[in-house]
Amino acid sequence: MKSEDAYRILDESDLIVNEAEVIQAINRVAREMTDKLRNLNPVLICCMNGGLIYAGQLLTKLSFPLQIDYVHATRYGNEINGFELEWKIKPQLDLQNRTVVLVDDILDEGVTLSAVSDYCKEQGATSILMSVLVEKLHQRKRKPEMRADFVGIEVVDRFLFGYGLDFKGYWRNAPGIYALKTK
Hints:
The chain contains four helices and nine strands, in the order H-E-H-E-H-E-E-E-H-E-E-E-E. It is of the alpha/beta class. The chain has one domain: Rossmann fold. Helix 2 crosses helix 3.
């Protein structure tokens, strides 16, 4: 994609959650997580690349002991449609008898988060929780009952980018959550 095409995408999209609202949501989630996790010695696993910005801002607001790891599993690459899950990096920490919190940018259909959660269970985690910046409200979840334990923002079912979410590999750095215009 050329720079001018990327700028056009941003200019033609709707800002649905501004940066101040995103920061407010992250602060609220941090308080909720601190209340629930402060004495559990959890492992927080950032789901790359999308979870990077959210995890980075969230972690500094968590005032309890924890360990950090990451996983890189993707279905999208630089595309807008998901395909088969590709594992690039699995967590390195020992998850046996640990509370694990998966930290990601979005819970959409839940395919990637389900696979990572299943992997953590196989590694002996006693509890697996999910913290996402954005959860889409729709009926296409891999498991119909699937919900994140800690949710920053709930949104309608549109194609989103910004604050970790990307459009064909671009605009993860956009200062807010944007949605492509509906046609």
